[in-house]
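Q: Entry one of two.
A:
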Amino acid sequence: MRKARAALQRWASTLCAGVCLGAALGTLSAAPPDPAAAGPPQAALDLMEADIAEVQAAFAAGELTAETLTRAYLARIQALDRAGPQLNSLIAVNAHAAEDAAALDAERAESGARGPLHGIPVIVRDDLDTLELPTTAGSATLRGHEPLRDAFVVARLRAAGAVILAKANLSELGLAVGRPGYSSAGGQTRNPYNARRAPSLAGDGVAVAASLGMLAVGTDSIGGLRGPAAVSAVAGLRPSLGLTSRAGVVPTALSVEVTGLLARSVPDLALALEVIAAEDAADPRTADPPERPEHYAEGLAEATLDGIRLGVAVDYRGGNREVDRAFVRAQELLRAQGAVLVDVTLPDSVLNAGRDILDRLIETELRDQVNAYLLHTEQGMPHSLAELLRMSESPLIAGSPTPVHPARLGAYRAALRSPGLADLHYLHILSSRLPAARAAVAKVFADGELDALVLPTMLCPASSLLHDYDSSYDCDADDPLQPAYLASVAGLPELTLPMGWTDAGLPLGLSLVGRPFAEAHLLALGRAFEQTAAARRPPDLPAAPLPPPLSSGDSPTQ
């Protein structure tokens, strides 16, 4: 094994380019086989698609170490994210990741593993605080900002033995305006399945899909986890509001925002959820769950759809013909596995009023919540949203190769004009409209005796990088409904899974929306569908001409 590790380290230091890296890193075997050993040769471990259980088995058998695995991912980041296809999914990489992994290997040898995440490399979205790594939330004004502590969910992952590998790029301050996946701190992230397409809101889905890390933790206000999962053919979980802590998050709208996960399989999501789903005194909302299961991964192997009642959200059709066809095929698979599908119509308070509710929440909460986060930033950095806007408009940033997108500047100005948290319309939403919408969705579940709702995660494929969030690129409808509004308004858990592909090879996602705090049941249903559909496939990452970065003189809608 020492020979194998030394060879990998020598190879990693030379960093062969994209195609070479893919061939070299696709599999990682143990030490060369002993010809005298009995039995068939051992199969190589496929790092491109290996799950946590497979990696932990290799750790336990002495065939792999956390340091070797971490160095492999670091080499892949250098060759595919920084060079080669230049996916640009990450803002910062942990320079001490290999050392951290080696320390975890030593701990394993001395006292055993802490749990299933011991030695597993994890990507953290850059709106979650991390020790010894900057947290920018995508804003160039926050470059170099190093928080004094980890976000609660990051601390939980670290305590479980995870290796914090890198920070993922995101649309600046998590705002779904302007170019998707573009920020002044990180530039433009590219979709791994087509470099001319967007990654949705953030780069963590790209990083997991392209095997730059095994897991990712991020945030979701209006699809911030579900969109990246859908367009990158990975599994994503937006938990129930209150299941996971938001402490240490650069906030967008905490009335609907949650922290959640991305992975390449449902079992990996379940193992990570067992770690991060915990009560946190710093986030009183986490006291809401009536009961927290000790395990989310148990029973996934026996998961079944037989007899399960699923409500098909008929309103979410007509956005794109290929999405509609894939959704019909997904329903056929569900029925073939014994699921009972019932057409349901969702309440107007989610369908048509959802955008108004969520837009008003973000516009009203952004200023005061960002101000609270920025209050204790370092000298020379913004201490309020007003200062962040002023610095974003400065010649230093406006004239850089990655200026702040004009639409984001507009969103900051709108937030600064907001009356704030005492606004009567905002208070009416919190006290009346949100509870009414949640009660109406609960009635849909109760009337249909439903285990979950099923819907396409997005009504259109990943958009072109030359278009903004509000464009109808590749959509048959001018302004299709947004399925993400449902779980965000209702505070429900939503699991996103690969369901199919467009003719051009773009991934499409299926969502299961469950009852409050029913994540264990939702994950079991998702695992049953995941095994039946087998829709995930890794990206080929072809070399292709890339669109130019946004310069200060560009029009964002050209």
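Q: Entry two of two.
A:
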Amino acid sequence: MKKIFLFLSVIWIFSACSSDLDLSPMDSQSELNYWDTEEDAQIFLNSIYADLMSAQDYLYFNALSDDAYTKAMEEYRNIASGSYGTANGVVAGVWSGRYEAIRRTNIFLNNINEVEEITEDQRTAVTAQARFIRAWHYFNLIELYGDVPLITDEISIEESLTLERDDSGAILAFIYNELSSAINGLPSNYPADQSGRITKDAAIAFKSRVHLYNGEYEMAATLAEGLLGDYSLFPSYADLFKTENESANEILLSLQYIPTFREHNNQYSLIPPSLGGYANFSPLQELVDAYPTINGYGIDEPEANYDENNPYQNRDPRLSATIIHDEYTMKDFEGNDIVIGTSPGDEPDGLNFSSNSTPTGYYVHKFYDPMARNQVNSGLNLILIRYAEVLLNLAEAKIELGTFSQADWDATIGAIRARAGLQGDALVFPGNDQNLLRGIVRNERRIELAFEAGHRFFDIRRWEIAEEVLNGWAHGIKTDDSIVDDGYIRVDERSFDPAKHYLWPIPLSERDINDNLTQNPNW
């Protein structure tokens, strides 16, 4: 394991030195002359796993939605507010990062057959994992940029400078083919010392997601339905995100972290200053308001009996499992109970009390890791695919098909709500009104998957509601000082232009070196 992470460190160092579309000699054999043993192949494959998603993007893509705000990550904040252009660092970095990762998968796939000291079953399994990862990258690219170059081989510097954008529909067909090949070659499980690898069911779940995103509801439902019964919802929603439960049956795929060897620093941006944190990622009031009361009604519905003066009482328990709010009781790193005050003037965690404290009145509890080496460095895995998402995929697909039934409710949304601790009417099938059901499943996705892998960022785009939720002010808690917006403080003014913002621009740095790359509309 130490050898694997040493190799990863070398890979990351070389990646950090590159910029834009990677221009290193892709036809060079200097990095390929160790393709001899099964261990060689596994070490290189591990470096490809590290490319799936950065911990930074995992977290801050959520700040590009109506769920969160970042005060210091300017490039992300500019995308959220609509004030970004073709030179934005995140736009350019995601493009170059994905293509660097694709280059590595292409190298792997082009050389895995050269490894002689490996069984054919092992070769099939590692090849299938690489195909999944390559499909993962291309899915993210077409979701963000639309048409992009499709590269499936190692190419020269000269070739990289003449690439053209391929039709996203053709790339989607390629993704489906890659995932079908992966599903056929992936094992259902691995030995205990290989936990965290991509399984057949993870590929099926991901393929269901891709079909759902593209409005292919029959296939999305069929794939999701095929996983019913093989997995279960972990009994406690709050405990699912703890280190000791990283092997829970609900989890199909995670970004793998190991204390000391490979850690991330997301926690520092989430927890209050009293725990040593810096509130660089803060939940918005708009997300808090999305959590229903414990009986399942929205806070604006009379049946909810919502009390604005006691806003966190009798709410969906996922609210407190996810978000630290005023007068919140939690454990510190020594296991002692502490109370977090987030109201204006509360020291040191109150609203804008210092440069370290929250600008919205909220912090994040969901990924709090009291077992972390320190306040900054956490080895907590970050979940990419879990069974709850599979159930939500199934529910949404059947709702859109108009075939959602009482049995479907019980197996999906009803089960998710029951696990969360909702009661009464929240668990009762509301009938077959498609618009009502659509609103329910969309809100369930928002609160169940909050802050995980940018789900909300992608959802508001595929549903084409971004111009509704990303125009105007994003808010924080209600204060006595505010005289606007019913007392809820204004945090960030946002603008979303549907004529251009549904796709990111092709980065200026890429078009500067390649005239063949066309630009997306209105950029």
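A: Comment on entry two: The radius of gyration is 23 Å. The longest helix spans residues 120-145.
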